Write the C-alpha cells for this entry.
Amino acid sequence: MVNTADIDLFWWSFWLYLASFILFTLFASLGKRRIGVVAVVSFAIALVLHTAGIAARWIISTHPPFSTMYEYALTMSWVIGVAFIVILARFRRMVLGVVISPVLIVVLVMASLLPKEIAKQLMPALQSYWFYIHVTLAAVAEGAFLVAAGGGILYLMRGGRRGEDDLVPPRDFIEEIISRSIRIGYPLFTIGALFAGAIWAQRAWGSFWSWDPKETGSLVVWLFYTLLLHQDIRGKWRGGALAVLSIIGFALIVISFLGNLFFGGFHAYI
Amino acid sequence: MRRSIISYRFAVTVIAILFGTSAFGWILTELVPPDVPYQREIYRARWGDTWLWLVERLGLHDPFHTFWYRAVLALFFIVLVACLVSRWRSIVLRTFRSEPPDEARELSKRDHRLHLSWRELKWKSRDRRDVLDELEYRYGPEKRLAPGRMDVVFGVISSFLRGRGFRVSKTKEGGVIRFVAVAGRWRYFGNFLFHLGILVITVGGMVGSFWGETEILYGTDGDILPLGGTPYAILVDGFDVIMTDQMAVKEYISNVSIIDTVGNRLVTTTIEVNKPLRFDRYDILQSSYYVDEEAFRWARVRYSSGGNPVGTVVRLEPDEAFSLEGFPLVIRAKRFLPDFKIGPNGPYSETPNMHNPAIEVELEGEGGAQEGWLFLYYPRFNSRFDLPVQLSLVDVAPVYFTGLQISTNPGSMVLLAGIAAATIGLALLYIFNYRCLKGVMDAEGLILAGTGYRWKVSFREEFEKVSAGLVDALSDLGGGDA
C-alpha cells in the first residue's frame, strides 16, 4: 500500500510526540528548563503535523475524517494535544507533558494498529449531519477524559509529598485539572455520544436505543462519570481516589473504543 | 424510609448499582451467545446443566431485557423522581433567590474567609488614616460606624461586587447588614433541568419500550406492504442501489407510495437511509435490502469472434432464447447468482449481496448444448466454450428486495423533549460557574466568606482578588475627599 500524505504526517507527528515525551521525562528528572522548552516545541510541532494530517485526510477522503476507528483515534488524540497546549498556556506547567504525552502516544499506538485505508465513499448509514455532531463531540469528550486520566497519573506520581516543589504542581492543582477535564468532558459526552447518537439512531435505525454493545459501552462510561461527579459533589472520592478513578475511566473508554473489534453490533466500523 | 430514598447516599448507591449491572450486561452480551437456534444445546455443551439453568433463569443471553435489570432501572427512576420532587423547590428557588446568612457564625464553615476590621483598614492617601478616624473627620466624632455610615460603606462593597458579576442582596437589622453575593446562579436551574430531562427521557424510553412497535418488511417492485394496523399500505414503486466506481454502495433508495384501501396514492416519495418517511404515527425507514439469489430481470451479454473487442451486446431475459447474429447458435441465460461460490454441491450464492455476480448461460448449436458461467467483476474466470464465439457479461439487473422498517414509538416526542431539557440543563451547567459570597457587616467590621462549587483553585484565586479589590475599594472610599 502506498502511503498517502496524511499517513506520512501521522508518522512524523507520532515520532515527534515520542521525542517530546522523552524530553519531558528528561526535563522532569534533570529539572533543566531548556530541555522542557525543547520538549514543548517538539510537542507543538507534532501537534501542527497532526493537525495537517487530519486536514490532509479530510481533503483526500472528501469528508471529515471520523468514519473509521483510526480516524476517531486520530481526532481523540488531537483533542488531547490541544488540551495540553491550552493547559500549558493557562498554567505554565511543562511537567504535565510527562503524563499527557504518553496518554496521547497510547491512543496513537492504538490508531497505528488499525486499518488506515481511506474510504472516499461513506456508507449510507453514515451520510448524515448527525454523524459529525455525534462523533466530533464524543471524540472531544473522550479526549477530555483522557486528559483527566493523565492528571490522575501525575497525581499518583506526585505521591505523598506535600507543598509545591519546583517542577511538580501541588496536589490541589492537579486535582483541579482532573476535575475540570471531567466536567468539560461530561456534558460533551452526554450530548454528543448519548443524545446525538440516540437521535441519529432513531432516524437511521428506527430506534433511539438498541442495546448495541457500543451504546451499552457509552452508557457504562456515562454512568461511571455520573457516579464520579455525584461523589465529588458529596465531597467524596477526591484526591487520590479521584486520580485512580480517572485512570479507570480511561480503561473503560479504551474498552468501549476497541469493543468494535470483538463486540460487533451496529457500530462495527473498523 | 422516605428520607433514605431522597438521600444523596441512596442516589449514589443506585447509580453505582446501575453502573455495575450495565457493565455486567455489557460483558455478558459477548460471553453468552444471544437467542439463536439450538441455544439450549449450545449452552449445555459450553457450560453444563447448572450454568444452563442459571443462564435461562436469569436471562443472561439478553441481560438488558431481564427482570433484574428492569428492576434496577425502575429503582433509578424512583430515586430520580424522589430527588426531583423533594428538591425541585429549593433548587429552583436558589436560582432566583439567595438567602443572606443568619449570623456571622454560619460563615465560619466556608472555605475562604476575609475578616476586616474598620480599624485596620487604611486609606490610600499619604497620611494613611484609620477608616474610623476618616469617618470621624468627615461625619463627626464617633468610634464606630453609625448605621447611616454603614450604608455608605456597604454601597461601596455592593457596587464592587456587582462590578465583578455578583448579584447582591442584603437584609439590615439592628445595626447589622447581612448580605449575599452570588454569580452563576443559573447553574442551579441547569442542574434541575438536566435531572428533569433525564427523568423525561426515562419516561419516554419506557413508553416506547412498552407501546412501541417495529417490524421490517421486504418487497420488490409492485409489491404492496401493510402499514401497521392502519387502513393504508405501502406500494413499492421501485428500488435502486447506487454504486460508486469502486463498486462501493453509495446509496439505496426506495420509491414508494402510500395508498388507501381503494388504491389511491396519498403520498409518493423516496425513502433513503437517514431520510425516513413519517406517515400517520409511523416512521418508514430504509433499513436494508437483499438480492434474490436465483431470479434476475435481465442480463446484457457481449458476443464476438476472432478477438474482436467490440462485438455485439444482447439483452437476455431469464430463459429467453436469442439467436446470435452471424453464428449458428442460440444463447439462453439460465441462472443468476449474486455472490458466486463453488461448494460441494456445485455453485451457490454465499450472500444475498452483489459481491460476485455471475450468470449461467447455455449455448445451443448444431453440435449440441454447452453451459458455462460469465462473471461481471472477474471476466478472466469466464467459462471457455468450445465454439468460435467469445462471451462476456456486460451488466445484470438483479431482483432487489427493499427492506423497509416500519416503526412507531409513542414515546419519541417525550424522549426528544427530555433530550432538549437535559441539553439546555447541561449547557447551563457548563456555562455558569456558581460562586457564593456571604457577608456580615456591623459597626466593628466585615466578615466575608465564600465557596466555589466548581473549581477550588480558581475560586481561591478569585476570592483573594476579590478580598484585595474590596480592601482597595474601601480604601478609595474617602481618598478623593481627604
